[in-house]
């Protein structure tokens, strides 16, 4: 098999060739490694190789739906025992931090027969919608190397789009599967709260707002991997109801006619690009051609209030995480990015009353979305407000850095987050990606579907949000859209 043949298959397709003994897992792995060696110097998608591990595993008897398929994991909460894990942070990279045990999601992926041969680039602690850390540098978008791949699962997205692997590990705490899926032209599903495990180190992340899954080129790969990884484990706070049939099987069911609401307005009042609007209108027309009813409507949720509550949780949780890290590893002043230190400073000043008020608001948003879904089957928006930003386009202005450093030094950086400046911080952080946090806060399943490329051949995804635990509805529709407007062939256009 040569690379052009390899590129024609998704993960399940490659596994079928292995099962039929048309190709050996070691041969597939070699193609993937060679492709990574060819493209990764330009992409910077894979930061920690695990070649020896994968080569040894390829000689074993593998079983499962993805037996023999090359795979990559995100360098964030997807640990392999005995291998470096940096979380995109200079402190862990410098000290050579080694994971003591596998993450449970990794164990479940391993049980599918995958061959993991590397860890992928991510922003520091996954806190940004771009992948551009001080520790590892920017991850470039294979559609145009001047642009970023998005975050926080940017390295995985870049590697899948470039054809290194057909599927890779990802995670989503505020859009981190759907944002890079949108920017890199991939299928990206964020499952419902509690659908996939976080153990053994955590019962859940960000009160269940963050969830683990994959980025893929095909819908069926995502469905099959969710079948293999879903369900509670010993660390889980609660058990989510399992579907009556497998997600892969539900793709074969006819899609019922759906009533789908759509909006192209930013919930926080920021600018939405013409590309994003065109992408949703294109998707709406496609849906209507398939017999679905499409109506312009949006839930009665105060978008700025939700965004403030998301930011409060995000910053506060990160402040706690940073303190925990400082107790685990020896750190220096230069080990953390200025952005990270500023976010932690803001979060540290959140009072218990403010935090509990914020969490109580999450329940209000859940109620409002449930009421909305009394009238509509799905909610459609742009996945991102524009195509991928250029590398270096999103950063602290140089004139602000000395001011921020001075305030951090005297413990006053949190003063920047008082009064009207709070709304400015919210908009500055989320203006590129204002649509994805709704599904995280409410715990609803959501997906980005690659149906639009602009005049410069840059993709932009369409996001669909479904009622709780209705991943089946999303996957069925995605499969129908994939058949109506196939996108798999477009990856052959990428030249890295």
TrEMBL record:
Domain of life: Bacteria
InterPro entries named in the record: Amidase, Amidase_CS, Amidase_dom, AS_sf
Pfam families: Amidase (PF01425)
Domain Amidase: 27-475
Positions of transmembrane segments: none
Gene Ontology molecular function, alphabetical: catalytic activity
Xref: PANTHER family: GLUTAMYL-TRNA(GLN) AMIDOTRANSFERASE SUBUNIT A, MITOCHONDRIAL (PTHR11895:SF7), TRANSAMIDASE (PTHR11895)
Family membership: Belongs to the amidase family.
Protein name, as recorded: Amidase family protein
Lineage: Bacteria, Pseudomonadati, Pseudomonadota, Gammaproteobacteria, Moraxellales
């Amino acid at each position: 098999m040569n690379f052009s043949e390899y590129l024609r298959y998704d993960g399940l397709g490659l596994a079928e060739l292995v099962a039929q003994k048309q190709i050996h897992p070691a041969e597939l792995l070699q193609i993937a490694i060679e492709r990574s060696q060819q493209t990764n110097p330009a992409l910077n998608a894979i930061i920690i190789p695990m070649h020896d591990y994968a080569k040894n595993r390829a000689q074993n008897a593998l079983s499962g739906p993805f037996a023999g398929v090359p795979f990559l994991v995100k360098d964030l909460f997807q640990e392999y025992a005995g291998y470096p894990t940096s979380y995109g942070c200079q402190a862990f990279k410098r000290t050579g931090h080694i994971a003591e045990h596998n993450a449970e999601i990794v164990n479940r992926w391993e049980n599918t027969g995958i061959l993991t041969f590397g860890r992928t680039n991510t922003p520091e602690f996954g806190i940004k919608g771009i992948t551009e850390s001080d520790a590892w540098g920017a991850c470039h978008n294979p559609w145009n190397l001047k642009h970023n791949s998005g975050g926080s699962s940017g390295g995985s997205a870049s590697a899948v789009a470039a054809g290194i692997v057909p599927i890779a590990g990802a995670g989503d705490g505020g859009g981190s599967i759907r944002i890079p899926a949108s920017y890199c032209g991939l299928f990206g599903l964020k499952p419902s709260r509690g659908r996939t495990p976080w153990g053994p180190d955590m019962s859940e992340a960000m009160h269940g707002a963050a969830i683990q899954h994959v980025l893929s080129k095909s819908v069926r790969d995502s469905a099959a991997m969710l079948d293999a990884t879903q369900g509670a484990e010993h660390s889980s706070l609660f058990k989510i109801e399992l579907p009556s049939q497998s997600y892969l099987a539900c793709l074969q069911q006819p899609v019922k006619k759906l009533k789908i609401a759509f909006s192209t307005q930013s919930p926080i009042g920021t600018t939405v690009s013409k590309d994003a609007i065109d992408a949703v209108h294109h998707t709406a027309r496609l849906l209507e051609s398939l017999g679905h009813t499409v109506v312009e409507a949006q839930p009665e949720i105060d978008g700025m209030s939700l965004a403030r509550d998301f930011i409060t949780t995000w910053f506060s949780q990160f402040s706690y995480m940073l303190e925990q890290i400082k107790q685990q590893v020896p750190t220096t002043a230069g080990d953390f990015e200025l952005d990270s230190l500023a976010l932690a400073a803001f979060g540290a000043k959140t009072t218990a009353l403010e935090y509990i008020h914020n969490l109580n608001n999450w329940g209000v948003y859940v109620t409002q979305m449930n009421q909305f879904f009394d009238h509509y089957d799905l909610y459609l928006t742009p996945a991102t407000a524009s195509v991928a930003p250029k590398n270096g386009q999103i950063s602290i202005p140089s004139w602000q850095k000395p001011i921020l450093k001075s305030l951090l030094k005297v413990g006053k950086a949190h003063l920047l987050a008082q009064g009207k400046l709070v709304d400015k911080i919210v908009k500055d952080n989320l203006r590129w990606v204002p649509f994805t946090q709704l599904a995280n806060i409410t715990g609803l399943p959501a997906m980005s579907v690659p149906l639009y490329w602009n005049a410069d051949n840059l993709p932009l995804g369409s996001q669909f949000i479904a009622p709780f635990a209705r991943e089946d509805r999303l996957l069925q529709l995605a499969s129908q859209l994939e058949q109506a407007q196939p996108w798999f062939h477009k990856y052959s256009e990428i030249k890295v």
